[in-house]
Structure formats: structure tokens, C-alpha cells
Amino acid sequence: MQIYLPIAEVSVNAFLLLGLGGLVGILSGMFGVGGGFLMTPLLFFIGIPPAVAVATEANQIVASSFSGVLAHFRRKTVDLKMGFVLLIGGLVGAALGVIVFNYLKSVGQVDLLVRLCYVVFLGIIGGLMFIESLRAIRKTHKAGGVTPVTRRQRNWVHALPFKMRFRTSGLYISAIPPLIVGVLVGILAAIMGVGGGFIMVPAMIYILGMPTKVVVGTSLFQIIFVTAFTTMLHATTNFTVDIVLAVLLLVGGVIGAQIGTQIGLRMKAEQLRVLLALMVLIVCGKLATDLLLEPSELYSLGVGGGH
Amino acid sequence: MRWWLCLILMLLPFSAKAEEVVLGLSKDKVAITTSFDGSEILIFGAVKREEPIPTNAPLEVVITVAGPSEPVLVRRKAYRYGIWVNVDFVEVDSAPEFYAVATSGPLDEVLSNVEDLREKITIDRAIRSVGAPSSIQDAGSFTDAIIRIRSEAELYQTLEGQVALDQQTLFRTSIKMPANLTEGDYVTRIFLTRSGEIVADYETSIDVRKVGLERWLFSLSREKPMWYGLMSLAIAIAAGWGASAVFRLLRNT
CA-to-CA distance for A200 and A243, rounded, in angstroms? Predict the structure, then answer.
């Protein structure tokens, strides 16, 4: 069934969009990532104009994250206090990100920088997570299936002032690292047009030392607000949020997110991490080959009159 | 209908030409609805004349349909530092979003170069490119790229020999418009030619508009973007909450 999207001004198959939404929704629920890093390139692929894809994706992430976070709230796996600290950083970062984005746009080459951002960040994070979680799984196997309780190391994070107690996470650390993580994720989120979960989740695990179960819910909680902010920015400045596209994606997405959350709860944290790492690496590889191989069409059309 | 009559009445005193176009369109409005999946327009008409058919050369018909023209920024990738990046760009001043040209015979036979240049009939002529930066030697390949990319999307069509012409009097053709149309007035021109020279022409327009829900959403997003944004968020949150509630019910039963 073809459907005409009023803002994107293209006609696409409605079931294809529902399917894409569902698939990305499942991943979103499993890993606590918004799924934007996967959905945005997929939307480019089916012919949605990039500006519309990025803006609409932000709106769709709000829906799937909201659906996902409710499930986590019931299981009390959301660290609200940590969420708010990350959120303050996130909003500041998103605003900074928009400024950076507009600056790059005026210089030109913004597409390339977005792509390079994707390749570099996805590559580093995917690679690190993959190696780390493989090591963790091997360790578990050696210990006869029992996860050894590892003492959290005291690193530089614990030496900073303004300490706060995060009860749900069982942490007593300075508020500065979560704020910085929030700002960095916010900047990247605005530039790359994603929720930023795929960067925040590893940052929370490896830098802040939060327990994996709490990480997913808390990340979803923060993503809702940052993407809602981004949606409003896009809707009011670029007029690129396509509500029909968003509804189709989010109907599939919210259902997928519910299923994904259930799957995620039944899987071991290490397995979850290996899968997420693999997925991040696949997307990274795809984007890298686009940059490295000669494209079949060297020319691309854009909206003129902007100079 | 009324301005049609007015137009004909206005034109009548000046109609000194031997041959005139009388045109019909299967529809002069294309409504873009939610289920819009392209449209096919039948353009038909007759040649009206007071005198016998001239015998010096056969009559030919050229029909063009042009969507609104916009400037287009064409970028070209090149291999730099090991990766493919956009290096050169040319801003083409004006290129139609949609362009179809249908003829009753091979283009170079039905239309002379001079007339093509004057009336901007073929696709190459319909694209206007004034100046490329001096650093770019092959500006032509950028306009070629527009034609190539848009032809692949069926936005540009050259339909040679697709106009059926009977008895040098009745003509008809059908133009397929793809699903990804933009809004605007689609100027439709009909040229009658003899040995490449234009002997009569006629112009009308097809109105392509979003209607209903499409229209409402589009207007809202432009006129009240704040409300539109808030509405998008409200729908997103309601959908997220709804799905969560439904799933909980499903599990509890």
C-alpha cells in the first residue's frame, strides 16, 4: 500500500515503513538505544530526503524510548537522579551541537563530517565493546557459568569533587563526569541526528561504572527529552518533521520496543553487549565502504539558492 | 469554464493564424491525497482551421508539461585522501521539478533548433544555467547529471513519437506523472509545427495540489510550526504510552 508523505513529498510503501519501525523498535528495546543510528541511514536508503529523515527520526525516537522507558520504570531500572544530571548536560550539548552543525553547514562538507563522525564513533565504540564483552564471556565460561563479582576499580572519576549519591545505580561519584557525558552525547546527537544511546550506553558502563541493567532504562529516559528538544528545533526552524512518516515508523517502533525489552530482560548482559557491538560494527562498515568505494553516481542534487 | 470563454473571446479578434489548437485535458487538477501514487493525464485536442489543410509539409505536434522550476545545487564527488567526498559543485539557476516533452515524430525532424532555442522546448533547453565557477571546466556535465538523475526517477521524460495524430487534425497523448511530485502549476504547452517551424501554440496549466489531510498537515507545519511540533510529540508520547499499556494488558491476561 503506497502512501504519500506530506512533508517529505514522496510516496512510499506503508508496510515497509511499519516493518522498518518494528525492526528498529526491537533493537531499541533490547539495547536501550534509540535506534536512530540504524533508522536514519535506512530512511536515506528508501529515498526519504536526508533533512526530513533526520528530523522525523528524532520524533520517532521519542515514541519508542517512551514506550521502552515505561517498561523499565515498572522494573525500577531507571536511575532518575542520574537521568536528570545526564539530561542537563544533554540539553546544553544539543544546543551546542546545533550551533556546530550550522557552522559546518556554512563551511560546506557537512554531509562528509556527519558520515565521518558515524564511522569513527561507531568503529571505536563497536570495536571496544566487542573485544571487552568477548573477554567477559570467556571469563564466565572459565568460572563454570558463574559471573565473578568484579570490584569496581577506583579511577580518575572517583577523584573529582561535587560527589553525589546515585542510589539506584549504587554509585557515589562526582556529578561532573555524567554532566560531561551528557554534553558530549548531546552534541553528537544534534550533529548526527540520533538519540545518542549507542554512545551513552557504553559511556555509562565504562566511564561511570553503572550496572548494565540500570543503564538501559536511564539512557532511554534521557533520550526522550533530548530528542523531544531536537524535534521541536527541527519542526520550528527547518519544517522537516513529517508526521505521517513518524506515525508509521512509531506504530511499528513502539510495538517492537515492547518485544525488545522482553527479549533484553531474558538475555545475559554480556550477550546483549556482543550483539550491540556487532550491530554497531556492521553499520560502521557499511558507512565506511560508502566512503571508500567509488559511488555509482558521482553527482548528487541538493536544494539550491542557499548561497 | 468562464475564463476559458473569456480567453477565447479575447483571442478571437487576433486569431489571424490559419491553424489553431483546441485543447482538452482529462483533468486540469491533480489532487495529492494520502494514497496518491502518481497520475496519468490524457492531453487531447484538435486543430481548428478555416482554410483547407496546407499541403507543403505535414503537421507535427509537440506537447510539453513543466513543473515549477527551482534552483538546484549539483555536487560532484571525487577521490580525495582515500575517500569519496563532494569536491565540486555548480548551482544551476533553474531546473523544472518535472518535465515531459511528447512529440508526434523524431524530435530533430518536428522541431528546428532555432525554434527549440526560442521556446525552450527540449529538456536541455528548459534547464537554465548561467554561470559556473571558473574553477569548473565541464559545467555541462553538471546539467547532464540533473537530467540523468531526474530521468531515472521518471521526472524527466522525452516521449518521441508518443503523440498520436489523426488526419492532421486530432491529436492525443498521455503523460504519466510519478508519485513524488511537488506542488505547483504545471505549465502545459502545445506547439503545432510544419517543417520544424512553429505555426501555432497554446498554453494552459495543470494545478497540482495537496488536498485534505495532506494539505492540512503541510499548512500547519509551515504556519504554526510550534503547534505542529508539539502535536508530533504528543502523538509520539501517546503512541509510546499506548503500546506499553496494551502490552501490559496482554501479559496480565
Answer: 27
**Which residues, 6 or more positions from B120, have their beta carbon under 8 angstroms from its beta carbon?**
B126
Chain B residues with CB under 8 Å of A250 CB are 235-236, 239-240
Q: Is A300 contained in some domain?
A: no
Contact B242 A112 (CB under 8 A): no
Q: Give the structural domain span for A67.
A: 2-291
Q: Specify the amino acid at residue B248.
A: R
Task: Return the bridge partners of B23, or none.
Answer: B45
Q: How far is B137 from chain A (nearest CA, A)?
A: 16
From first to last of the 307 residues of chain A, give the pLDDT tens digit: 778 887 777 778 888 888 888 888 887 777 766 677 778 777 877 778 777 887 788 888 888 788 778 878 888 878 888 888 888 888 888 888 877 776 776 665 666 777 787 788 778 878 887 887 788 778 777 655 444 444 455 566 666 666 777 766 677 777 788 888 888 888 877 777 677 777 788 788 877 778 877 888 888 888 888 888 888 887 777 777 888 888 888 888 878 877 887 887 787 777 777 877 887 788 788 878 877 877 777 777 766 654 4
Q: Which domains does chain B have, with CATH numbers?
A: 2-210 (2.60.40.3880)
Residue of chain A minimizing CA distance to B146: A301
Quote the number of domains for chain A. 1
Which run of H or of E encompasses B42? strand B39-49
φ and ψ of A304, to 5 deg:
-90, -175
Asked whether residue A264 is domain-assigned, the answer is yes
Q: In chain A, which residue's Cα lies nearest the Cα of B221?
A: A239
User: How far off is chain B from A259, nearest CA to CA, in Å?
Assistant: 9
Phi, psi torsion values for B59, nearest 5 degrees:
-80, 140
Judging contacts by C-beta atoms under 8 Å, the chain B residues touching residue A301 are 72-75, 145-146, 149-150
Q: Do B244 and A299 touch (CB under 8 A)?
A: no
Shortest Cα distance, chain B CAs vs residue A264, angstroms: 16
Residues of chain A neighbouring B229 (CB-CB closer than 8 A)? 231-232, 234-236, 241
On whether the CB atoms of residues A298 and B77 are closer than 8 A, the answer is: yes
